[in-house]
Design brief:
Elements (H helix, E strand, L loop, with lengths): L32 H12 L6 H8 L2 H14 L4 H6 L7 H14 L5 H7 L5 H16 L5 H17 L3 H10 L9 H14 L3 H15 L5 H8 L4 H13 L6 H4 L8 H14 L59 H4 L5 E10 L2 E7 L5 H12 L6 E2 L2 E3 L3 E4 L26 E4 L17 E4 L12 E7 L1 H6 L5 E14 L7 E4 L15
Antiparallel strand pairs: 1-2, 1-9, 2-8, 3-9, 4-5, 5-7, 6-7, 6-8, 9-10
Helix pairs in contact: 1-3, 2-3, 3-5, 5-7, 6-7, 7-9, 8-9, 8-10, 9-11, 10-11, 11-13, 12-13, 13-15
Protein name: peptidylprolyl isomerase
GO molecular function: peptidyl-prolyl cis-trans isomerase activity
Keywords: Isomerase, Rotamase
Length: 522
Amino acid sequence: MTVRTSGTRLLALAALAALALPGLSAGAVPATPTATRLLMLEQQRSLGHGALARMLDTGGTLLAARAALALGRTKQPAAAPVLLNHIADSRPAVRALSLFALGLLADGRGIPAMLSGMHDRNSAVRVGALDALDREVVAAQVPGALLARVARAEMQAALHDSNPIVRKIAAIDLVAFATTTQAAPAAAVLVKAFSEDPALAVRRAAMWAIYRGYAAKVSRAILLHALAASDSVIRIEAVRAIGGSKDPALLSALEPMLHDRSWRVQEQAAESILALKGRPATLHWKRIPAWIHLPPIHRSALDRLPALPRPAQPRLPAAPSAAALSPALSLDPTTAAEMVGPAPGAHPRVRIVTTQGNIYLELYPEWAPLTVENFLDVAARGYYDNQPWFRIVPDFVVQTGDPSANAPGLGYTIGAEENPMLQDSDIISMGLDYPQGKPARDSASTEYYITLSPQYHLDRDFTVFGKMIAGFSVLAHLTEADRVIRIDRIPDVEVRAAPGIVGATKLRKGASNRGARSPGHR
């Protein structure tokens, strides 16, 4: 998309209502001036003349872990020595987020520490090390002599790590080696992981990685076998891979997939057939073909929850300020699941009322406090009301948040809040400007998108700040003729620690309301 210029959309003030936003932390640890100072420095991309380093060096677990993340988000090279001092910290969360933060710097200095972290006894630390190594490889910071060692470590993790989340991430990260001398062994590892791993999430990730980097490097038999998988996500990735193989002889294998029982598979089959025929992809979903198997739209129990009131004092949305927040600290990931999911505690929820039905989201302010603050404020002030779904790409994303893809927006941007959460299906993230075909950091504003299928290649640049929890079938019915009628805050939900990728949830009573940038290409 084109780079936006500053501007303010004129709206009727009567439609711009919202509540004053309280602190957004999902945790139970009280807010402190130190936590506010941390968030301010992160927003300013400043080390604070050593203030963040002191928080990491002397703070308790919650403060130190969050300070490590803030140091990485500053992108300041001087943060690296501070973070390297904590890769052997006794606290797993501090080790994990120090490694993750070194990956955000991606200057090569942390590679030995990351390789060491791959062998840490704690799975959260191994996730942090994997994410960081992937960022180093993609940034071309891994010297040739080390590249094979990094690849071997990730291949070993993909096949043999005891934690399925770690194996999943390792499989995803092998895409980075597709154009290197390690491509052949990486492809073999992915085929083995897809064929033999007992965890469905790992098999899905392996086929996604094959699609992204190895479609022409694996046997056609593997791809054809995957077309018959019982899992629709695996079928989607296999269909994508065949489309990326550029082998017209496989057209006959894709044609039956147009009749798949899953609407997502059907749509991707049509796109892959276009690719094999050398025709352009569908960039805007204007109408739904009659042959798509649309799922019925079921009412959710969440439909019965009342919308929380919007504030009485109207004003235009404004850029969120860390100084105005009272953030509590809750990030203490000690497992792989906690490293890629929400922290225990209360989380905001919203209902996106569309012309096709309701979509429900759970938001994660512990990982992206300013992003969540901004989203809730813009929603409560009515800016999202009656906005079109101006960009729907089959089997990729549905996107909205401005009157059009080229609208000027509200005249401000917010900083990126990179985090380890994965862009699986049904994840919400902020869009970014895309000058010269590359995402511009810190260019998010009001546009957001929801993924229709796994889009892990977007993890490095786009801020994940929540996930869908209900209304999944509504996505199947959306076209660019549809609109967001409004976005309502509903009572918060209590997330509790769970062994899966995300926690179990329970209604929290008495919660109060708070007040195209593009995700790029497939």
